[in-house]
Write a sequence for this structure.
């Protein structure tokens, strides 16, 4: 993760939406119909955001103000706030309006350098509510210039413990099959936590997802270590995300797998919780990615570039590791291997920086140091 190849005077040749040649200018002998001069500015792979919750209704400003005045999360929940308030607000909106709201959020991620963005459901709660959110994500995929990857997130359990078994039965017997039938997601994610879903409940969901041909992902070890990471590894998960509470045993387990650990430094910044052990994970040999976790409650972070920059400050990644985490490794966390690098055969997704040194993309805090962005070989205008 700490190796970045730099070509000081480079040519990148593109045909259609793919890179077909990369190398020193003096070695280029081909011809081109058109030429883009980067003007001595750094060209790097476009960023990949492997973890967002961009589809939601309402806001959590009351929660934010209450927290700033010292209210605990339990107090906020007692007042009717928290994640269930977002579920209630999302239920009031149509899929087209949810998509319109999310499109504005995704435009900010794109302007920060992201060309591929994962978007989770999870605020729908009911069968129809989740399908509505996934339909909104499908609309985003049709309208956005970025590549949008949809994920079905099993996020919030019923309040009444007596309803949990029926809820899981709905997920495995109805929601996952309909999601597959309508091709609305490529993976299923489960929030495994003391106040969310148990390991046994997640096992049933993962088994149903695997049987239906979907990959799995998981929110694990955010507040407590309860076995979620280990379960996800059993199912060859694409990624395990959060990891703020992960200890040495979890670090070693992840390092011995092909699963990507996704760091979400915006959560640590916004909630003031401990940082995920990014340095320990990399030193142990784990593949690490970084994302925004864009959501209304715990990470209102609208810049993939800033998430990458924060990973250096908060999770102790090196500059090179942070770039790898936000490009090639973030793509791998989504099961994608044709973006995130500037190599022949890759999608022509790249950024021309405002600066001649590529490290500025990781150094800068506030304001995206992106001059131009190309997705599939086409320049975007904002």
């Amino acid at each position: 993760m700490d190796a970045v190849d730099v070509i000081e005077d480079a040519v990148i040749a593109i045909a259609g939406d793919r890179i077909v040649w990369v190398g020193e200018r003096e070695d280029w002998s081909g011809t081109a119909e058109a030429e883009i001069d980067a003007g001595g500015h750094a060209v790097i792979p476009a960023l990949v955001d492997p973890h967002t919750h961009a589809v939601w209704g309402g806001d959590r400003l009351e929660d934010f103000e209450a927290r700033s005045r010292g209210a605990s999360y339990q107090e906020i929940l007692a007042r009717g706030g928290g994640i269930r308030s977002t579920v209630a607000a999302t239920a009031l909106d149509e899929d087209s309006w949810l998509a319109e709201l999310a499109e504005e959020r995704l435009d900010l991620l794109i302007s920060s350098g992201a060309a591929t963005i994962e978007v989770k459901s999870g605020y729908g709660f009911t069968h129809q509510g989740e399908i509505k959110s996934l339909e909104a994500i499908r609309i985003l995929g049709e309208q956005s210039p970025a590549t949008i990857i949809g994920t079905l997130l099993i996020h919030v359990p019923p309040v009444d413990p007596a309803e949990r078994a029926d809820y899981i039965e709905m997920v495995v017997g109805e929601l996952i099959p309909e999601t597959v039938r309508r091709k609305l997601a490529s993976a299923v994610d489960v929030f495994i936590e003391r106040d969310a879903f148990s390991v046994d409940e997640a096992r049933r969901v993962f088994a149903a997802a695997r049987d239906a041909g979907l990959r799995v992902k998981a929110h694990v070890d955010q507040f407590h270590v309860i076995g979620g990471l280990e379960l996800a590894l059993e199912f060859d998960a694409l990624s395990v995300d959060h990891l703020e509470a992960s200890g040495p045993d979890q670090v070693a387990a992840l390092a011995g797998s092909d699963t990507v650990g996704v760091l979400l430094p915006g959560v640590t910044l916004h909630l003031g919780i401990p940082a995920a052990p990014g340095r320990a994970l990399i030193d142990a040999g784990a593949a690490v990615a970084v994302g925004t976790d864009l959501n209304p409650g715990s990470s209102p972070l609208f810049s993939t570039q800033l998430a990458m920059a924060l990973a250096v400050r908060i999770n102790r990644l090196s500059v090179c590791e942070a770039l790898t985490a936000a490009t090639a490794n973030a793509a791998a966390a989504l099961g994608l291997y044709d973006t995130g690098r500037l190599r022949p055969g890759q999608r022509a997704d790249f950024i021309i920086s405002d600066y001649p040194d590529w490290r500025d993309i990781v150094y800068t805090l506030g304001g995206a140091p992106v001059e131009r962005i190309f997705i599939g070989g086409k320049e975007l205008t904002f």
User: Anything to note?
Assistant: The chain has a mean pLDDT of 96. The longest strand covers residues 147-154.
